[in-house]
Amino acid sequence: MNESGTNEGNAAPDPSSAQQPRAWGAPAPEVNPYAAPAMPDALGAAPPPPPPPPAYGAPPAHYARPPQYPGAYMPLPGYGIPPPPPPPPGMGMPGFGIPKPHSGKATASLVCAGVGLVGGAMCFLPALAIPVGLVLGFMGIAETGENGTRSGRGIAIAGTVLNGLLVIASIVGIVLFVSLAQRGSQARDESFMIKSDDDFAKIRTRLREYYDANRKSLGPGGPRLASPDYAKGNAPAGRSLGTVQQPLTIEDLCGSGDLSLPPSMYELTVTGSASATVRVHSWGRGGKVRVMKVFDIALGQFTIEDE
């Protein structure tokens, strides 16, 4: 109990310090939800609340509004910072850009690959499109890169790969063709050598028989021995095809069935009463030519040479 005779613990509260009820229709006081809870001071009274934050979106006082272009969007007052102005005409939307034109070289490379693949199998001229397409493909890849000015990089790569494969296939095909052609030519030459050797032996036999029948001479006047009834070098009496009136030829000595090669491929030239030269030409131009030189048919002296 103090001096005034009252109990300090039972003192009545101060009406001014109690919270007064809010009048009807009065706005509620703004409370910052992010503020720390109020702590009572030493005397038990709560500190005053902090001031409310500035209005949402209001720019600071030092913020300078960017200049506006004609036709630019003008934000309404109180709605925050305006968006950046649109890009100048011709620049496209941000992040997308203007579409690049397609690469004509890439398309041409793919077309050349198709022409070379289809037409090259039929004739030689369309195959010339393959190396052209390969060059165009490399040029298309160069201009459709990351910093290139054209689109269509996939087509350029496809054309380059196809033309490269066709070039490799063409080289392999040419090598195989040349190899097979050489083997075929070698086989024909070997066959020609064997057949001509057999025919030269038959021609020498007929020359000796004509030489004996014509009084030891290879000149005109002897019997023709190219008869169907003439077999194995034994001519039936009186069954020859007549008498040789002109210089002796292979057709006078041998028929078509007597030789391995056609008689028209042989050329006979009589150089003396007992000597002659027989020349045979292989098939086609540039083929082999073989020559048999008979020095004395009675003695069987001869040579065979390749020209």
Strand portion: 5-15%
Low-confidence region ranges: 1-11, 235-239
Q: Distance between termini?
A: 157 Å
- Sketch the major β-sheet: 4 strands, antiparallel
The helix fraction, in percent, is 25-40%
Mean pLDDT: 76
Features:
307 residues; alpha+beta; four-stranded antiparallel sheet; 31% helix; rod-shaped; disordered N terminus
Q: What's the helix and strand layout?
A:
Blueprint: H1 104-119, H2 129-143, H3 153-213, H4 250-253, E1 266-270, E2 276-281, E3 289-296, E4 301-306
Antiparallel strand pairs: 1-2, 2-3, 3-4
Helix pairs in contact: 1-2, 1-3, 2-3
Q: In a few lines, what is going on in this structure?
A:
The chain is of the alpha+beta class. The chain is 31% helix and 8% strand.
Fold and architecture overview:
With 307 residues, the protein is an alpha+beta fold. Among the domains are: 79 residues; 115 residues, no CATH class. 31% of the residues lie in helices and 8% in strands. It contains 4 helices and 4 strands; from the N terminus they run H-H-H-H-E-E-E-E. Strands 1-2-3-4 form a 4-stranded antiparallel sheet, with helices on one face. Strand 1 and strand 2 form a beta hairpin. Helix 1 runs antiparallel to helix 2 and helix 2 packs antiparallel against helix 3. It starts with 103 loop residues before the first helix and ends with a strand.
